[in-house]
Amino acid sequence: MSDDVEETPPLPPAVAKAPIVLVEDRAAFRLALDGLVQGSGPLALDAERASGFRYSSRAYLVQAHRTGTPNFLIDPVGVGALDDITHELSHLEWIIHAAHQDLPCLREAGVNPVTLFDTELGARLAGLPRVGLQGVVEDVLGLSLAKEHSAADWSTRPLPASWLTYAALDVEYLPQVRDEIHRILGEQGKADIAAEEFEAQLSLAPNTPRTEPWRRLSGLHQIRGPRKLAVARELWVTRESFAEETDTAPGRLVPDRALVAAVLAEPPTKRDLAGLKAFSGRASRSELDRWWSAIERGRATKNLPEARSTSEGPPPPRVWAEKNPVAWARLSASKEELARLSEERSIPSENLLTPDFLRRLCWDAPVDISPPGIRQALLDKGARAWQVNIVAEALSTVFHTVGESEPTAE
Description:
The protein is about 50% helix and about 10% strand. It is α/β, with parallel strands linked by helices. α6 crosses α8, α10 packs antiparallel against α12 and α16 crosses α20 (about 385-405).
């Protein structure tokens, strides 16, 4: 006897109902702006980059839609600066999914929101099970959204028709998604929290450049010794410079694993480097002189790097138990408390409090670990008021408990 398992019927596909208009020059851009001005409701925006193909993070397509308008797909390559979107539509609420990803390239193109509704962040705060656009559309609208072109090379010209449909769907349903998430947040009493978070997104400072960005090289942990690290650094810097010069993603020129293989193999000659099977990539052989010169610079330099990077922040938590056991106890107990609060509030713990803020607080606790002291320490680190209102008292209790359990010297 077999059990019949009832299959869940597939969700209906999300389809573009509004017209799709590709905007490739200034005249068409002007018409698109006029259309958007005449639309109703918030402005839905998205941007497509060419990550993994190009060095730059510029937008190669900007999608814009309002209720009652076409899906305007604006080509910044042909149109140029898009400042007029900001000048003529900044009085509207703008809907962007995962704004932290798109705001830098939008701003580079002259597109800068004043009022934001971030549907990805809103989904997080609402405790939805999935926060990617595809998952959110399925969960709140009951529609299946295809995402097959998310990793495409959007610098391609002309853009294939199927890509244009994909790009249009990324904005056409955003107003409906926004309304559903806004409703859920309101029912949960989180509308004010969400508004504070959306406002904070607009004022986030750009990431501080790393002092030693070459240490991002994947597989660097395999390389031992200052001389080999110097070679790795020169290869990375050389690849980065060439990638910027040619506007090509560094990994497409020579993958990280190939650079690491070249360092570990220690080829005695340029010919040996060329014969190294693991040294691969589209520019590994065609730019052989470039890479060999980098290796020679690394072998000759007197400016040898330290074994590990120097960081202004605390060390990796994996070494805390040995280096600072009290801080490790604070961090472990604080994570448990945040997990409890996360479940209680249906907000991910990383949204309740930025993990870096928690690590810094635990590593170097303030003298005053009362709730007001913890609150001020977190605000000084950049935490939002709603976050510290939720976590300050709980973390103060944790810090006092850990302090009381410390062994005392006899």
